[in-house]
Amino acid sequence: MSLLDVSIVNVALPSMQTDLGAGAGGIQWVVSGYALTFGLSLVAGGRLGDALGRRRMFLIALSVFVLTSALAGAAPNLTWLVLARLAQGFAGGLLTPQNSGLIQDLFQGAERGKAFGVLGATIGVSTAVGPIAGGLILAWFGDPEGWPWVFYVNLPIGVVALVLAMRLLPKDKPSGRADIDVLGAALLGATVLAVLFPLVRAESGGLVGLWWLFPLAVALGWAFVRWERRVVRRGRAPLLDSRLFTETPGYVAGAGIGLAYFCGFSGIWLVFAVFFQAGLGYTPLESGLAVTPFAIGSAVAAAVAGRLVARWGRLITVLGLTAVGVGLAAVAVLLLLVPGPAAGLWIVVPMALAGVGGGAVISPNTTLTLTSVPNRLAGVAGGVLQTGQRIGTAVGTATLAAVFHAVLGGTGRYPAAIAVALFAAVALVAVAFVLAVRDWRVSTRVPQGG
Fold first, then answer.
1. Cβ-count burial of 448 within 10 angstroms (0-12 exposed, 13-18 middle, 19+ buried)?
2. What does the alpha-carbon distance between residue 389 and residue 395 come to, in Å, rounded to a whole number?
3. What is the mean pLDDT of the chain?
4. E strand intervals along 250-361
5. Cα angle 145, 123, 420; round to 5
6. Which of 48, 69, 193, 234 could be bridged to 154 by S-S, CB 3.0 to 4.6 A?
7. Which of 403, 281, 296 is nearest to 343 (CA)?
8. How many whole angstroms separate alpha carbon 224 and alpha carbon 187?
9. Cβ atoms < 10 Å from Cβ of 250
10. Cα 355 to chain centroid, rounded
11. Model confidence over 185-206: pLDDT tens digits?
12. Contact at 8 Å (CB) between 431 and 72?
C-alpha cells in the first residue's frame, strides 16, 4: 500500500488538477510531498520499531496511514489534499521499515531469504502496477471526479491488514523505556530534507533556486556522523549504528545498487504518463495498460528470482540490470521511430523484457542486502535501504522530468523527449550495473562466511 501510493497517483494528477482547479506547480506537491515525508521518517521509523516493538509500530503506523488515506480522498481543495498526503507519507515511512524488521525477527536461514524475496517482489511489483491501478480506478469511477478512489482503495486493504496483524503478529516483549536519539533523528531528518526538497521542487526551478541546500546537506550529514559517534562513545543507542556499514557483508553495495537503480526505474513512470496522455492522447487507463507488460514481467521474474538468489547470488542482479537496460533502450528507439497511438503496441515485448529484469533486481537485491543484518539493527537497516531508494526515486523523477521537458521545449516533439529521457534512465541503470558487477566479482573471490 505505502509503495503503491508512490506511483498510483501519477496517472490521476490531471484529474485532480481539473477537479480541484489547481495549478500545475501546486498539484505536483501531491506526489512530491508524499515522497518527501516518506523519506524523512524511514530511518526514525526503523529505530522506533527496534526500540518500541515492531508489532506496535506496525499497527500504529498502519492505522494512521489508513486514516490519512481517507482524509486525502475526502479533500475538498488542494491545500487539504497536500496536507493529507504529507501526513500519509510520514505514516508510510514509519510503516515500511517494520516489514524488514519483522522478517528478521520471525525467519531464520533459508526461510529468511525466501521471505526477503517476497518483500523485494512486493516492492518492485507495487511500484510498477501503480499506473495501471490508477488507470483502472479512473475508468471505473469516472474521470476526473473518480480520483478520490485512488486513496479510498487503501481503506479496505488497510482494515484487513490491521485485523490480520493483530491476530497473527506475535506480541512485542516489553523492553522498558526506549532510548531514542532525538538530536540524531533531527540532524538526519534535516540532512534528508536538504537533499530531497530541491529535487521535489525541480520542475519549479528548485535545483537553481535551492542549490545551496546541497552543501548544507553535506554539513548536516557530517554533523550527524560526528554526533552518532559521540552517542556510541557514551554507551547509548545511536539512531544509525555505523557497524551496519562496516560489519554487515554486502550491505553498502546493496544499498548503493538500490539507490542507483531506483534513480532510473522510478523516474520513468511520470514521463511515460505525460508522454502517453499528453503526447499520444491516451486515456489514463490506456496509459496504464501501455506499461502493464513491465508490471507483469516484474511479477513473474520476482517470484522466480526469489528462489534463485541463494544459488546465483549477485549474478542474478547483474543479469536483471542488463535486461532492464536493453529493454528500456529498445523502448526508446521504438517510441522514436513508430508514430502515433500504435507506438504503445510496439513496445509490449521490450517493456516486458525490462520488467523481467526489474523483477530480477529488486527482490534479490533486497535479500542480499538485508539477509546478514543482525536482528538488533533490522529496523534501521530496512529504513536506511528504503531511504536510499526514496532519494533515488526523487533524483530519478526530477532528472528524467527535467530532461523530458527540456527536449520537448527545444524540439516540440514528444517522441524525441521520451526517447532522450529513457536513454537517461538507461544511463542511471548502468551505474547500478557497474556496482553490481563489482560486488559480484568480490563475492566470487570471497568464500561464503569468509
1. exposed
2. 10
3. 83
4. none
5. 75
6. 69
7. 281
8. 6
9. 21
10. 16
11. 788 778 877 877 777 666 666 6
12. no
The DSSP secondary-structure symbol of 374 reads -
Cα pseudo-dihedral 197, 38, 13, 350, rounded to 10? 100
Q: Is 333 exposed, middle or buried (0-12, 13-18, 19+ CB in 10 A)?
A: middle
Residues 6+ apart with CB under 8 A from 305: 117, 121, 316, 320, 359, 360, 363, 364
Rounded to 5°, the CA angle 373-377-381 comes to: 70
Looking at residue 376, the DSSP 8-state letter turns out to be: G
Instruction: Give the contacts of 127 (CB within 8 A, at least 6 positions apart).
Output: 3, 4, 6, 7, 265, 266, 269
User: What is the 8-class DSSP label of residue 170?
Assistant: P
CA nearest to 443, candidates 311, 349, 332: 311
At 291 the three-state DSSP class reads: coil
* Three cell numbers, residue 5: 501510493
DSSP character for 177? Answer: S
Q: What is the CA radius of gyration of the chain?
A: 21
Give the whole-angstrom CA distance, residue 290 versus residue 366.
Answer: 27
Provide the grid cell at 27: 498539484
The string of pLDDT tens digits covering residues 212-257 is: 888 998 999 899 888 888 887 777 767 676 777 776 777 888 889 9
The string of pLDDT tens digits covering residues 162-188 is 999 999 998 877 554 556 677 877 887
**The three three-digit cell numbers of residue 115, written as one number:** 521471505
Summarised one tens digit per residue, pLDDT across range 73-126 is 999 988 899 899 989 999 998 998 888 788 888 887 777 777 877 777 777 677
Question: How many CB atoms neighbour CB 219 within 10 A?
Answer: 12
C-alpha span between 192 and 384 (Å, rounded):
11
Percentage of residues in the chain having pLDDT higher than 70 = 92
Find the distance separating the first CA and the last CA of the chain, reported in whole Å.
38
pLDDT tens track for 408-434: 888 889 999 999 999 999 999 999 999
Helices and strands in the chain, H and E counts: 22, 0
Q: What distance in Å separates the CA atoms of residue 443 and residue 70, rounded to the nearest whole number?
A: 47
Q: For residue 448, is pLDDT > 60? A: no
Burial class, 310, CB count within 10 angstroms (exposed 0-12 / middle 13-18 / buried 19+): middle
Polymer length of the chain: 450
